[in-house]
Design brief:
alpha/beta, Arc Repressor Mutant, subunit A, D-Maltodextrin-Binding Protein, domain 2, 3 domains, 5-stranded mixed β-sheet, WH-like_DNA-bd_sf, transcription, DNA-binding transcription factor activity
Length: 319
């Protein structure tokens, strides 16, 4: 059989005819005229090279070939209906969906872990696959369906992707509780003399925009370690006299180990947003996931913004 000649509407008509075994009732079921259904039956007979339905005293009788087709035909059409319904309507409590999210380890620690916990309650059938972020390849990965969503720094993201702002992040200066020199009223000179850990995402760098600002003031920071990720920094700082500038959300819940204060000079923060491809924009499941992520991000931001860095409440938040 040449399937290129096959119209999906013909299969829907065949299903109705096999169920009703009557052209008039099948036409009513399909909201079509009787002549239209009769014409489609003629086309079906040509496609399958079989009468399919034979006139009988009451209605029509399916042929052996028609009876053979009924079960697989209904299964195939049911799968199509489920696919279309899932696309248009998403019930989080019962739906199954896998979402591939590209993000940095900072985003995993600061936001994704909270999203996963909340989503397990709301949508237990939704699975999240975390992918290593590769910004230069991101648009291509989304085009090919390898990545469904990216939660990343909005600066430098591919402009062709759709986006939504999630939250703004700032930096705090962290050190261990009981650090002999860390306090809220540090001068820039005192700040520069501390033993600093910096993060170089590309690896090996000992200078950041903060160091450029210090150089412009004729000062130089005492950098003793360059890390390739933010994740190990709080633990390292908690066990030494080193300090570090880190995104504020990384120290949430570490008030027993760490003290954090505002840096004594301006440190530019960044905005985190969601990015996705046009191909998944209208999908009900992915749309629900995006709305859920935005809701969790907004809730977290509201909670964290209620306190100021360096305050007793801030340093004990979520103990």
């Amino acid at each position: 059989m040449d399937t290129r000649r096959l119209d999906l509407n013909l299969l829907v008509t065949l299903e109705a005819l096999l169920i009703e075994q009557n052209v008039t009732r099948a036409a009513a079921r399909l909201h079509l005229s009787q002549p239209a259904v009769s014409a489609q039956l003629g086309r079906l007979r040509a496609v399958f090279n079989d009468p399919l339905l034979i006139p009988a005293q009451r209605g029509m009788t399916p042929t052996a070939k028609a009876l053979e087709l009924l079960v697989p035909l209904r299964q195939a059409l049911d799968q199509v209906r489920v696919a279309v319904t899932t696309h248009l309507n998403f019930e989080p409590a019962t739906a199954s969906l896998t979402v591939s999210i590209a993000c940095t380890d900072y985003v995993q620690a600061a936001l994704i872990k909270h999203i996963v916990v909340a989503m397990r309650r709301e949508a237990p059938g939704v699975r999240i696959a975390l992918r290593i972020l590769d910004v230069p390849q991101l648009e291509l990965q989304m085009t090919h369906g390898e990545v469904d969503l990216a939660v990343i720094n909005m600066n430098g993201a591919p402009p062709a992707l759709r986006s939504q702002h999630l939250y703004d992040e700032g930096y705090v200066l962290i050190g261990r509780r009981g650090h002999p020199s860390l306090r809220t009223d540090l001068s820039v000179d005192e700040f520069a003399q501390l033993e600093h850990v910096v993060v170089s995402l590309r690896g090996g760098g000992f200078s950041t925009s903060v160091d450029n600002a210090l150089v412009a003031r004729g000062q130089r920071r005492n950098v003793v370690l360059s890390a390739s990720s933010f994740l190990p920094v709080p633990e390292l700082v908690a066990q030494s006299d080193c300090v570090a500038l880190v995104p504020s959300r990384l120290v949430e819940g570490r008030g027993e180990q760490l003290l954090w204060v505002d840096p004594p000079l301006p440190v530019e923060g960044f905005a985190i947003g969601m990015f996705w491809h046009e191909r998944s924009d209208g999908h009900a499941g992915f749309r629900w996931v995006r709305e859920f992520i935005a809701l969790v991000a907004d809730s977290r931001a509201s909670m964290l913004n209620r306190v100021e860095p360096g305050s007793t409440e801030s340093n004990s938040l979520a103990r």
